[in-house]
Specification:
It contains 14 helices and 13 strands. By secondary structure, it is α/β, with parallel strands linked by helices. It has 2 domains: 101 residues, 2-Layer Sandwich (Enolase-like, domain 1), CATH 3.30.390; 247 residues, TIM Barrel. Strands 4, 5, 6, 7, 8, 9, 10 and 12 form an 8-stranded mixed beta sheet that branches. A 3-stranded antiparallel beta sheet has the order 1-2-3. A two-stranded antiparallel ribbon has the order 11-13. Helix 1 crosses helix 3 and helix 2 packs antiparallel against helix 3. The protein binds magnesium ion. Magnesium ion binds next to loops.
Length: 388
């Protein structure tokens, strides 16, 4: 029997966030696995949570992914929370990697085999007014960034068109959002899907007002119109808009996803494989969503391990729609991770290497050591804190 020997974290600063890589080592020489547990502004807490959870794992069989998931979640008297579940997510990904390496097969095969022969990707263009956080495109240069993405083969992209602001939108806010959306739509034409991430900035009434103003530019979906926590009010938004609402990047537990599906709060679910509990949990969320005819568009502005893990899940998941990637943060992703799948005409194709099919260059990774993430404190016109 293979046994887990050690669990390590490797923190890589990628400017906007610290990637938390998790390495699970076994007592079999050369057999280990990689996962990612990135959780912005809580990097050291997650690394500590990985260390806490590792006590449960040493000496156990890494192939028992479900049993170990239950042990790390239900086996703890206090369950869940973003920090612990992100740590668990990174470990779970690493255990699946070990399983694939041990069996000599790619993880998409273990997750169900090919439900499709390619995975469609979309490009996250950045933050507009939140450009201090997200880098990349802002305001007037969204249209230029959109054209560059399309020139590289993407047929779908996401922008943050709606500004931070008051609880109810002003004419100025509506005008700015419409101008941004109009400029991107006119740049890329009618056949590119444009998703709009509201980043939890608006109230339900505000989201509906922005939705009516942007509808003529054909948004594919409105993402996270409101702060998480209330499926019923999000359902009000979903019912009021003539296009889809997506949410889920800040939902953690299976029960939260169930509650959103039961409330019919969204047409698209966006679980994050680095927060919900890794592939073991995403598979269950996908199965729940399948019963409500809701597809997945997994959230992923994170690091390169998370991107590859999401792609494997996309290959194997029937109710999968499209996969987010954010390429705008740092130019040296491929220095740190070998095995990034090339995006060809906006799609990636199934790799054949065992596990996730990746290797980390640990020497290159440690050259980008931990740095505190940029702090965000955005004031509204009256000095009150804004949701950004
Ligand atoms: Mg988002």
């Amino acid at each position: 029997m293979v046994r887990i020997r050690a669990v390590e974290t490797l923190i890589v600063n990628a400017k906007l966030r610290n990637w938390v890589f998790v390495k699970v080592l076994t007592d079999e020489p050369g057999l280990y696995g990689w996962g990612e547990a990135t959780l912005e502004w809580k990097t050291r807490a997650v690394a500590g949570a990985v260390e806490d959870l590792s006590q449960l794992l040493i000496g156990r069989d890494p192939l028992d992914t479900e049993r170990l998931w239950q042990l790390m979640n239900r086996g703890q008297f206090f369950q869940g929370g973003a920090v612990t579940m992100s740590a668990l997510s990174g470990i779970d990904q690493a255990l699946w990697d070990i399983k694939g390496r041990f069996l000599g097969t790619p993880c998409w095969q273990l997750l169900g085999g090919l439900a499709r022969n390619r995975v469609r990707m979309y490009d996250h263009l950045g933050g507009g007014d939140a450009s201090v956080v997200y880098g990349a495109a802002s305001g007037d240069n969204f249209a230029q960034a959109a054209l560059e993405s399309v020139a590289e083969g993407f047929t779908a992209l996401k922008i943050l068109a709606v500004p931070m602001g008051l609880a109810l939108p002003t004419a100025d806010g509506i005008r700015r959002a419409a101008e941004t959306m109009a400029s991107v739509r006119s740049a890329v034409g009618p056949d590119v899907q444009i998703m709009v991430d509201l980043h939890g900035r608006t109230t339900p009434a505000g989201a509906i007002a922005y939705g009516h103003a942007l509808a003529e530019y054909d948004p594919w979906f409105f993402e996270e119109p409101c702060q998480p926590g209330n499926p019923e009010t999000l359902a009000d938004v979903a019912r009021a808009l003539p296009f889809a609402v997506a949410t889920g990047e800040r939902l953690i537990s299976l029960q939260e996803f169930r509650d959103h599906l039961a409330a019919r709060s969204c047409a698209v679910l966006q679980p994050d494989v680095c927060h919900v509990g890794g592939p073991t949990a995403v598979r269950k969320i996908a199965a729940m969503a399948e019963t409500w005819n809701v597809p997945l568009a997994p959230h992923n502005p994170l690091g390169p391990i998370a991107t590859v893990v999401n792609q494997h899940i996309g290959f194997a998941t029937p109710n999968f729609l499209i996969q987010e990637v954010m390429r705008a943060d740092v130019p040296w992703r491929e220095d740190v991770l070998q095995g990034i799948l090339p995006i060809i005409d906006g799609h990636v194709f199934p790799p054949t290497a065992p596990g996730w099919g990746i290797e980390i260059d640990e020497t290159a990774a440690v050259s980008h050591g931990y740095q505190p993430e940029p702090l965000i404190d955005v004031d509204g016109p009256d000095g009150a804190l804004l949701d950004w």
